[in-house]
User: What shape does this take?
Amino acid sequence: MTNDLPNRDDALNQELQELVNEAKRCPANSKNPQDRAKRRIALNKLINAVRCSGRLSKQTQWSGLPNYEDYYNEALQHTFIEICQKVEQYDPQYPVMAWVNKIFTRRFYDVLKKDQKRGITLLPKNQDNSVISLDAINRDLPVAQEISESEQLQEIIENDPENFLSNEYIKEHPQASLKAILLLVLEGKQWKEISEELGVPLSTASSFYQRRMHKTITYLKKYI
Amino acid sequence: MNSITDKLTFGVPLSIEAHTIAQECSQGISNNLKRQQVYLNTLAVYAVDNYLQCMGFETDWKASDSRNNLAIKLMNVADLEVKSIGKLECRPVLPKAEVCEIPPEVWEDRVAYVAVLLDPALKEATILGFTLQAAAEVSLNQLQSLSDFLLYLSELEVVKSPQQEDSSRLVKIGHWLDGVVDAGWQTIDHLLNPQQLGLAFRSAVSMTRGQKIDLGVIDKISVALVVKIASESEGEVDILTQVYPVGQNILPEGVKLNISDESGEALLDVTSRDEDNWIQLEFSAEFGEKFQIVVAYGDSSQTGEFEV
Assistant: This one.
């Protein structure tokens, strides 16, 4: 064993096996939260080490596919969940990476199959069905029918058919009603501006708003 | 990606699935800034959801406000329900940002705030750490590490989850008549005000005890569950269960009380109406019989297991 490469793989495998063993030592259903946390920390480190290992399969047999990178990422995600859930099933007579890559290849195949079934209609609508970047979000303009959804919401709030939104207001500040706040929020106003405009402290206004959100949603839903 | 000796983080690849959900959520929002906010919030929650699944926590994203079509329009919200733990708020952090921003409308009702760094191509999310501090801005270098996060959540999980196999949680109500009352059940004069005490029925061969229960996610309420056990005939007991408001005289509308058998099948139920002072259910049971009392309000509920 004078070759450098196997040595490096051996060292990697030893590191990964130690993390696997640490996770196994602490059962998932232990009544001691410290044990549960130790197991989880070991699994977190294991996934990080697997990703950094440089030994994850490139799944080259699929690299010609147009959505290869997206398939790769999705399969990898499923693989990580499976490794964490099934860490007890790892057989130490094989290298950890061999076990990981075996699962990875299976999950890659699943993602391909699932994608064939859902067809391309469910994929994001832009850029050759690939994921969109930070810059691209703003370029993706909504269609006219969708604009009317926000307008409809605004109209319901303005009409307030049962006067629920105007009757709910911050104590001693009738001008700071749920209705007034909702309309300012829809306008895109920041909480600092809302607080100044209505003359109430910021956290009073936001807390009042947050606590009534579920009631507000139930109310608005009746009219949509 | 940090090496494993650095502060613990976790990377989540943002797949087609993540972007499909983000697009579904942000659809129909005409304001560019708002649409970007919803899109990024969705990716952040997706990443944390994925992380928690890896770590063996049970999440319920679909029941969270961040997947509610109206809530996301009316709030800058990126919450994730974690079963038997509570709500986490998953805040997206853009490349080069030095702080994690937490909007005021999510300053309450959160177990923790998790910072999620997104890369410019939106192909990778990195869970950086968390904070318990609900402040407008939290500096990234003040975040607590994921090791602490996992410990914190594991502690909450053990404390909050009902453990069926743990028989000490079973309330041996049959023993109450012998004067042996389970821990956590107090005499009702500590729970109710004098006016309410007049309403709670008392008789000589009985034992009445109560427990305070906190319910509700955003609309939080405290109620007292009062259980009275009386032995009228051999081998059988009469049980009266009542729910009172704590600290006020009127129960909010929609508080539910129900009694189920051992398998969880509902036997009796009652729901408070507008202006109810209390609600109650009465039934009899044989010695050795097991039953459950469930008190619920909105999305939250608490179940107690009893044996006569």
